[in-house]
Amino acid sequence: MTLEFPGGTAGVTSRGESLGIGSELSEHGTALVLVAGYAGSGKSEAGKMMSQATGWPLLDKDTLTRPLTESLLTHLNGDPDDRQSSVYTGSVRPLEYESLMKACWENLECGVPVVAVAPFLAEVVDEQWASRTRRHCARLGAGLEVVWVDSDASSMRERLTSRNAARDTWKLANWGQYLASISLERRPVGEFHFVDNRITAMTPLAEQVESVAAALAGRYSEGLA
Asked: What is the pTM assigned to this prediction?
């Protein structure tokens, strides 16, 4: 059965059994894989699994930019762990994503596929951004693949509590307010791969990611490592 989601269609037999979009051969030789989702969804873990399954390099926004982000927020008289204020969203976040995407483009220019991990919350629901990114990928001989790592509120809260990161302090202390500010029904525009990472999911995360990786291997010439 194929489930319809707002903004896109993902091929799944049921919630928790991700089959990806399909393994038809792509006209492009390589891929940019964006692994997206909310804080606590498990996207970083999924991104690592995807990189391991495909052998493609992993670029995680937090790993690449966190030290600079914290320093810049401090310089701007903000809280280095804040990710909710206008200082972060207006002055810092755009630079994080610019840096991440430039690193992606440089890899693709060299013919190297990339697995990029970040929330991409504003980006993947923006049709213009998705169209621009897809066109840029095509100019570099790459296809764009979006993997949405889905979860529910209780699973996300449990993961955030477990990882005990300072940047999650505000979310956990103001959990109701945080949930009211997001939509758990958010889905990327266009086609995307759907991964169910609720703690109660019927299919383990690793199995779902491997399924998506196998579909990507069938679409792109690099294949699995």
From this structure: 0.88
Tell me the H-state helices in 26-60. Answer: 43-54
Strands 142-150 and 193-196: parallel
Q: How far apart are CA 69 and CA 82, in angstroms?
A: 10
Which run of H or E residues covers position 71?
helix 61-75
Q: How many CA atoms lie within 13 A of 140 on its CB side?
A: 24
What are 142-179's pLDDT values in tens digits? 999 999 999 999 999 999 999 999 999 999 999 999 99
Residue type, 153: A
d(CA 146, CA 188): 8
The span from the CA of 116 to the CA of 47, in Å, is: 7
pLDDT of residue 15: 35
H helix or E strand, kind and range, residue 195:
strand 193-196
Alpha helices in 126-195 (DSSP H): 127-139, 153-163, 169-173, 175-180
Q: What is the pLDDT of residue 17?
A: 38
Which residue numbers in the chain have pLDDT < 70?
1-26, 221-225
Please return the burial class of 25, using the count of CB atoms within 10 Å of its CB with bins 0-12, 13-18 and 19+. exposed
Q: What is the pLDDT of residue 82?
A: 86
d(CA 141, CA 134): 10
